[in-house]
Amino acid sequence: MAKSALLKSSIAKKVAMALSGIFLMLFLAQHFFINMTSVFSSDVFNSISHFMGNNPLVQFVIQPILIVGVIFHFIMGFVLEIQNRNARPIAYAKNNGAANSSWASRNMIISGLVILAFLCVHFYDFWFPEMVYKYVEGSPLNETRYFHELAEKFESPVRTALYCISFVLLALHLKHGFSSSFQSVGFNNKYSRGLRTFGLAFAFIVPFGFIFIALFHHFNH
User: Fold this and answer.
1) 187 in the Ramachandran plot: left (φ > 0), alpha (ψ -120 to 50) or beta?
2) Side-chain-facing half-sphere of 85: CA atoms under 13 Å
3) Are 15 and 184 in contact (CB under 8 A)?
4) What is the pLDDT of residues 57-109, one digit of tens each?
5) Tell me: the pLDDT tens digits for 6-63?
6) Burial status of residue 109 (CB atoms within 10 A of its CB: 0-12, 13-18, 19 or more)
7) Residue 46 to residues 33, 141, 145, 148, 217: CA-CA distances in angstroms?
8) Roughly how many angstroms between the first and final C-alpha of the chain, as a whole number?
9) Are 64 and 135 spatial neighbours (Cβ–Cβ below 8 Å)?
10) CA 158 – CA 57 distance, rounded (Å)
11) Maximum distance among all alpha carbons in the chain?
12) CA–CA distance from 133 to each of 49, 126, 130 (Å)?
């Protein structure tokens, strides 16, 4: 009975982890679309950013849900990693993980930690200044400031390089996480192969799209 309850609890945690991951991927796609407009039109990027930054629904409903989702996803990742390690208390005499799984699948916790560190820096760069600008200083609205603030962040070659490295690790994280998320919620049918193909495309296009945006602004600063 205890073993059955433990198994059910583990499955529930994996499903919760998968659902939070899918939610964050949707946000990532939306964030990528908005940032990509900065490559083609500063006016469009400013307009969308101004709308997102001053829409009550986005600011006071979606944004808090997103923050909770990020925190939940990473905490659940650590919980599952500890749980998996405790399930194997005796280390294998010889473990050749590379023969059975990819680097990404074996090191999700490492890539996750790097992504978490990047998110903290990202919040420090953009979210906290935005909160101070609007709610602490009470500065007047300026619909044209967003593009300049974005481009300015990529002036430093060190910051730009670290940004790019973070997104390479995100690509590896997504490569494994995309398909495993849908498997965890029971999506295993004739469309699974197509979903895996889409997942690989997503894991490549979105992270490397962010890298392209960073390099574009760095070299055009």
Assistant:
1) beta
2) 9
3) yes
4) 988 888 888 888 888 888 888 887 777 777 665 555 455 555 556 666 666 77
5) 445 667 777 787 788 888 888 899 999 999 999 999 999 999 998 988 888 988 888 8
6) middle
7) 13, 12, 7, 9, 15
8) 63
9) no
10) 36
11) 64
12) 14, 11, 5
Question: Which residue type sits at 88?
Answer: R
Tell me the backbone φ, ψ of residue 76, rounded to 5 degrees: -65, -35
Half-sphere exposure of 73 (CA within 13 A, CB side): 23
The structure tokens listed for 124 are: 């420090």
Contacts of 52 by beta carbon, 8 Å cutoff, 6+ apart: 34, 58
Q: Which residues contact 208 (CB under 8 A, 6 or more apart)?
A: 167, 171
- Residue type (1 letter), 40: F
Amino acid at 19: L
